[in-house]
């Protein structure tokens, strides 16, 4: 399906199933193909109970909930899209396995996060996105044990994202809870208002907490007068490797002994 340039009313629900060699493609003629607005609490586009779907080069703006929600689906790829000035999230997933989110822009979420990967979604890639000026986290990953499933996000790669200007309502550039076997590398996280990269557990059992996270080659920078820790690893987390990162924080007070 090719979406021609123009503005279309949000509140669309997509329920289709493709196949590995025959995915369903929803393609914008250009980024000026825009799905705009939706009623309060409704996503501009909801991809529900789908398999093997590719969504590319469409703008989602001013939705009453998320620009796009991917729910109970697998093998969904979202690339080259823009998610701008939506009420709660740019993009949110729920029980979405084998999800790829690449080379998108997520900006201006008014209440929460730019990207929210949630609810036991395994084997995911979040790569090459520009995530900025969202009220909450830039990229938030949460296995959500209280929502069912195994309560863990397993086997993910978060790499080469540019993340800035997020967190005026709190949160982190990259925020992870209930993640296991995750690679976070070569991200640029700068000029955010709260935390840089955070790894922790908030509900569930210790077995559902965050484990086996590798942080490699990331750069985290704060402006003077803004921000908290560049890297915050809570005691509910274990087996974290941080190597080759650059952390710049002019807000740390050094007290002589």
Strand order of the largest sheet: 1-4-7-10-13-16-19-22-25-28
Task: Give the number of DSSP strands.
Answer: 29
- What does the average pLDDT come to? 96
Describe the largest sheet.
10 strands, parallel
Please report the number of helical segments. Answer: 0
Strand content: over 45%
Helix/strand order, N-terminal first: EEEEEEEEEEEEEEEEEEEEEEEEEEEEE
Secondary structural class: mainly beta
Q: Which residues sit in consecutive blocks of at least 5 with pLDDT less than 50?
A: none
Q: Report, as a whole number of angstroms, the end-to-end distance.
A: 66 Å
Shape: globular
Q: Assign a percent range to the helix content.
A: under 10%
The gyration radius over C-alpha positions equals 18 Å
Please characterize this protein's 3D structure.
The protein has 257 residues and is an all-beta fold. Helices cover 0% and strands 49% of the residues. It is built from no helices and 29 strands. The strands form three sheets. The protein has a ten-stranded parallel β-sheet with strand order 1-4-7-10-13-16-19-22-25-28, with no helix packed on it. Strands 2-5-8-11-14-17-20-23-26-29 form a ten-stranded parallel β-sheet, with no helix packed on it. A nine-stranded parallel β-sheet has the order 3-6-9-12-15-18-21-24-27, with no helix packed on it. The radius of gyration is 18 Å and the shape is globular.
